[in-house]
Amino acid sequence: MSETFFGSDFAQLQSTDPEIANVLLDELTRLRTGIQLIASENFTSPAVLTALGSTLSNKYAEGYPGKRYYGGCEVVDVAETIGIERAKSLFGADHANLQPHSGASANIAVFGAFLQPGDTYLAMSLPHGGHLTHGAGVSYSGKWFNPVHYGVAEGTENIDYDQLRDLAREHKPKMIIAGGSAIPRLIDFKAIREIADEVGAIMHVDAAHFIGLVAGKAIPSPVPYADVVSFTTHKVLRGPRSGMIVCKQEHAAAIDKAVFPMMQGGPMMHVIAAKAVALKECATPEYQKYVKDVIVNSQALTAGLAAEGMRPVTGGTDTHLALLDLQGIDVSGKEAEQRASDSGIVLNKNSIPYDPKPAAVTSGVRVGTPSLTTQGMGVPEMAKIASMIGRAVKTDNPSVHAQIKAEVLDLTAQFPAYPRS
Ligand SMILES: *Cc1c(COP(=O)(O)O)cnc(C)c1O
């Protein structure tokens, strides 16, 4: 079977390693024939994939442009320098480090730059929408440091800034982290800056989820407020699977040293080149329109799911993602994930704030619209998808799931991911 999407070298891979060539084809088929609602995923451009599949992967380049520990870095230096300049310009940042291998790697570098083992910091609790690297017991961030967690208020389900301020005054943290992976609403960066200033803490925003919306100028930026902003590059931002850090000039040297040599070895130059490609794409009017559409779609999908009896946590969303409480339809997050999957719809179970069910079961699901919007779907399709999800999760009848799967195939045929050229 031929596949033009992967380019001419794919035929060679098919002959030398058909098993892995088939995995690449099967994954492409999976993307083209399903509805992808994972809020942290997106479909990168062929240009980004080309940079990822390049010989820059071979190059050892420990250090930074112009100051490397290896010879022969003059070519890859160009890619990293262009990427740094694009990041600074796109985010209006003093300094950018493109070397973190992932969001988790970016975060450990921030810890390395500002904290000593045992130090106290404040972060959003995981069950209220935070992240494993913000102090979960199973993570370095919980094992080697002393996290104190704030959460959302029970009534509004929004960040409880009064609690955050009280905890900051009580515990005098060295750092306050804002951000998480299941926060549907905007964060008040100004309020957190004021609290950080009052107690003399570093303000770290982990913008992994929403940085793409910032890049496309659809929501306010944390960059003017935060000492340091870390993020992933593969979520709404639509770049390669990786991480990045931007910060104020006064922290530039500490961040660079914490990424390399404190936490990482050689940078992945092919990924850095791919990040540069993505950053250029993010500066276009097309990308700005894309992120506005992502939010419009997210709000339409959320309204449709609410009409199906799935309650949006906080009442709605300002971003690319929504968290739905399924207690009203008496379905667990785990059941919903499986039933949607049986119907060709990929979403994830997710704890909701004050969830009575354990993390392996949950009372909620998280959905996001970055991938569907990249495929070109709009508000009418969100209404159809909300209805499909509603029908899928409320039954365990396989024939209903098979019927929805056929509808998914119809829809994805009209809006293909990675269209055949
Ligand atoms: C996704 C995410 C990360 C981790 O990114 P990886 O690239 O998977 O390591 C860190 N923080 C937040 C808030 C995230 O959403």
UniProtKB/TrEMBL annotation:
Main location: cytoplasm
Domain Serine hydroxymethyltransferase-like, first and last residues per copy: 13-389
A Pfam family hit: SHMT
GO CC list: cytosol
The protein's required cofactors: pyridoxal 5'-phosphate
A single BP term in Gene Ontology: tetrahydrofolate interconversion
GO MF, any single term: pyridoxal phosphate binding
Keywords: Cytoplasm, One-carbon metabolism, Pyridoxal phosphate, Transferase
Subcellular location: Cytoplasm
Subunit field text: Homodimer.
Family of this protein: Belongs to the SHMT family.
Protein name: Unannotated protein
